[in-house]
What we know:
The protein is mainly alpha-helical.
Amino acid sequence: MQLAPAHVDANLKLGIAYLNLGNRTAALQQYNLLLNLDPEAARQLHNVIFR
């Protein structure tokens, strides 16, 4: 069984949760983390943050 490196999906969902709670700074920190882990997930979070 192969595990997802650094739990990309969890970091994406955490970024969205931070944004929903009004913590844009923490959401952007998750975005920066995702840039190195999974650029596609980072793009998805970017689209949510800047919609």
